[in-house]
Input
Amino acid sequence: MTQLSERPLTVPNLVNRPGDDELVRAPLVAARRPGQWLGVLIVLIALAMLGHTLIVNERFQWGVVADYFTEDSILRGLGLTIWLTVAVLAVGYALGIVLAAMRLSQNRLLSSIAFAYVWLFRSVPPLVQLLFWYELASLYPQLSIGVPFGPQFASFDTARLFSGVFAAFVALSLDIAAFAAEVVRGGLLSVDRGQTEAAQSLGLGRLRIFRRIVLPQAMPSIIPASGNMLIGLLKATSIVSVIAVQDLLYSAELIYQQNYLIIPLLLVATLWYVILTTVLSVGQHYVERHYAKGRRGGAGHTPLRRSFRDNLPLLGSGWSRAGALGGKA
Output
C-alpha cells in the first residue's frame, strides 16, 4: 500500500482578526464611483457649450422669438393643438378599450375583428391615413345611412363633412385606438390569472373583480405607456399642417412665409411643444407614483446630494473620514 504523506495542518490565524464588536464600531466607507463624476463632467461641458452657442449666436434672434411667442395666431394654433390632442386621446382610448376587450374575448369572431383592426391601423403610417381621410370625397362623393340594398334615410356630401379638422380628428383617433388597445391588453395580461380565480372562488362578481383587483394591478403597466402615447400624440398633431389645418406648427409657417423669419418662428413652435410635453411629463410622473404605491420598496434613484457625499473619498484622505461619518449617519 502506498503510504499517504503527512502534511502539516494549517490553522487560520484568529488572533489578529477583528471581533464582532470592532466590526460593528468600524466606520462605514462609501463605495467610490469615479464613473459618475466623469459622466457629470462630460454633461456639464456639453451643457456649457450648448448655452454658449445659444447666447452668442445672434442668428437665433431671441428678440423676435419673444415678440411672436404670444402672437394671436400662434395662441389660436396652440389652442387647436391642445383641443385636437385631448379629443383624439379621449375618443381613441375609449375605442381602444373596446378593442382590447374584444381581443381578450372568448368569441373568435370578435377577437379576429379586433386583431385585424389593430394589424391594419398599426401598419399604415399616420400621415397616409390623414391624407386618405382628407381625400375620401374622391372615393365616396356621398355618404348615406340606410338599409344595405334598400332605402336610404340620409345622405351627406363627403367633401363638406370631411373638413381638414374633422379628417385629422378621425385619422388620429383611429390610429391611437389601435395602439391604446395593445396598451390596455398588455396591462390586463400582466395581472396573474390566479388573482381572478381566487376572487371568483370567494364569490365576487366579474365587474367588482375587474374594478377592485385586476384594474389597480394593471394600471402601473398601463400608465407609463399611455403617458408616452399622449406625448407622442401631442407631437404627432403637427402632421395636420400638411392638409392646411391651422395648428401650432402651421400658424408658425404662415407667419414665416410672409416675413421669412424661419428659424425664430420654428423656435416659437418648438418652445411651446417643449412646455406642453414638460407639463405632461410631470403629470405622468405623479400619476405613475400614485399607482406604483406598494409595488416597489425603498429602492429608487440616488439623490444628487447623496451621490456627492458618497464620492467625497475620491478627493483625498481628509475627505474620506467625512464621507465615512456621513455614510454612518
Summary: The first strand starts at residue 142 and ends at 146. The radius of gyration is 31 Å. DSSP finds 14 helices and two strands in the chain.
